[in-house]
Q: What sequence folds into this?
């Protein structure tokens, strides 16, 4: 039997049929919504044929579907749901907020308090000296890029293959049709030679910024090497461009400064979001004080042309009705107090245990090569190029992981079979294999996940095993 067999395709059709039969209410919700919404929803990533499972409630680490099925939630709202569902301290904060009035069209005391709590974690190690709030990571990245263009007086932005910086800044080998217009230069992620080649052909004084995730999240939990990130830091400095780290997902992977702090590499600007708003709609951009001072309505900031012309004052505006919305501020403050250093360490250790356990299983079955990072590089540098790839393999850092099928994610039917297999075992993950743990989950939950992986491998070992 080869990987090109029709067996997985036939099995996938059977899995879809079982799913349809078991989830009539989800199907009904989907069909009704499809009368008004293209594809039946407003988040493309949530769609999975024949229709997505509809979730109506959740508590702790569990969610409940419209058809009454209970699932262990291993998706964690794509990293935003780090608190689990209905965390009592966040619920208490939201209930208190509702009694005070929801939004006022005015400045309140909470935004400064939340900003201070976030700075405590990210100022020293990640260079977050000043920051501003947005409603999403998408907005944060758009504003960071716009700020870099204003600061440098340049227009070109280097981005990377397989990158996702929000719904209008998504890149593979081309710029997506739905992207916001702009001069983007696409280099190969985690490839110093690719960056060198592109920069060598670039006209002088045209690069405004280099934008990347230290670990690509939506792109597959692919970590960049520390050497690559250090090289980009050096090149951005040399070219008087800004280095922007998108840590919307990865800032939860290390208490003191996210991956920027963990690796000791300070960007000029950083974007974050998701969980830092307590699970509400939230994002932020910030960085060096001299750059962020451009947004100070009292005086603005001072920029000096890199060509040596006279310094000038510039003031940028940044509005947004819900940037400081009361409910997010209350939830964010409560969340910041929940996520202590120890809590962050524990959930990331649990994620490392998950990835290690799955990898050991796959190695034992001759599905993933037995090579380890220690044979090629420092164990503290989880370079994606040194992660062994088989017919089924894992990647990630800490509490964020992805299960892959095929060395280049080409075994789509097996990937989808895994998604339905997990649902049938009462475990909810992303269709693409993405996993983000929350702080209410336990070792027993991870062991349950690993057992489900084992039963999947038992069924498909004859196809997954390396030749």
A:
């Amino acid at each position: 039997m080869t990987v090109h067999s029709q067996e997985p395709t036939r099995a996938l059709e059977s899995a879809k049929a079982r799913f349809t039969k078991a989830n009539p209410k989800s199907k009904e919700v989907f069909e009704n919504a499809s009368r008004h919404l293209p594809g039946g929803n407003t988040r493309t990533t949530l769609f999975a044929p024949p229709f997505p499972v509809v979730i109506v409630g959740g508590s702790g680490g569990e969610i409940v579907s419209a058809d009454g099925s209970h699932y262990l939630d291993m998706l964690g709202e794509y990293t935003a749901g780090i608190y689990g569902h209905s965390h009592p301290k966040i619920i208490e904060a939201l209930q208190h907020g509702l009694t005070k009035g929801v939004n006022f069209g005015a400045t309140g005391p909470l935004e400064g308090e939340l900003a201070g709590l976030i700075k405590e974690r990210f100022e020293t190690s990640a260079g977050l000296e000043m920051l501003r709030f947005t409603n999403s990571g998408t907005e944060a990245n758009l504003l960071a890029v716009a700020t870099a263009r204003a600061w440098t007086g340049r227009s070109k932005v280097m981005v990377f293959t397989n990158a996702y910086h929000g719904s209008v800044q998504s890149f593979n080998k081309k710029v997506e049709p739905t992207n916001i217009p702009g001069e983007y230069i696409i280099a190969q992620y985690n490839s110093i030679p690719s960056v060198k080649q592109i920069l060598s052909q670039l006209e002088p004084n045209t690069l405004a910024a280099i934008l990347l995730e230290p670990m690509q999240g939506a792109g597959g939990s692919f970590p960049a090497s520390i050497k690559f990130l250090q090289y980009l830091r050096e090149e951005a400095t040399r070219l008087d461009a800004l280095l922007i780290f998108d840590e919307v997902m990865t800032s939860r992977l290390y208490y003191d400064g996210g991956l920027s702090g963990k690796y000791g590499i300070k960007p000029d600007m950083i974007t974050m979001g998701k969980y830092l708003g307590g699970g509400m709609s939230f994002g932020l951009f910030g960085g060096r004080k001299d750059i962020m001072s451009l947004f100070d309505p009292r005086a603005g900031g001072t920029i000096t042309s890199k060509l040596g012309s006279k310094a000038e004052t510039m003031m940028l505006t940044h509005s947004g009705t819900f940037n400081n919305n009361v409910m997010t501020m209350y939830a964010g403050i409560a969340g910041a107090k929940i996520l202590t250093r120890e809590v962050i360490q524990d959930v990331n250790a649990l994620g490392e245990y998950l990835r290690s356990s799955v990898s050991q299983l796959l190695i034992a079955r001759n599905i993933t090569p037995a090579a380890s990072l220690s044979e090629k590089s420092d164990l503290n540098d989880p370079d994606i190029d040194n992660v062994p790839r088989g017919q089924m393999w894992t990647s990630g850092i800490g509490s964020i992981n992805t299960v892959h099928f095929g060395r280049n994610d080409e075994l789509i039917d097996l990937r989808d079979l895994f998604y339905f297999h997990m649902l049938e075992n009462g475990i909810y993950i992303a269709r693409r294999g993405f996993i983000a743990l929350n702080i209410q989950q336990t070792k027993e939950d991870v062991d349950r996940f690993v057992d489900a992986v084992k039963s999947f491998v038992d069924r498909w070992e004859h196809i997954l095993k390396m030749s």
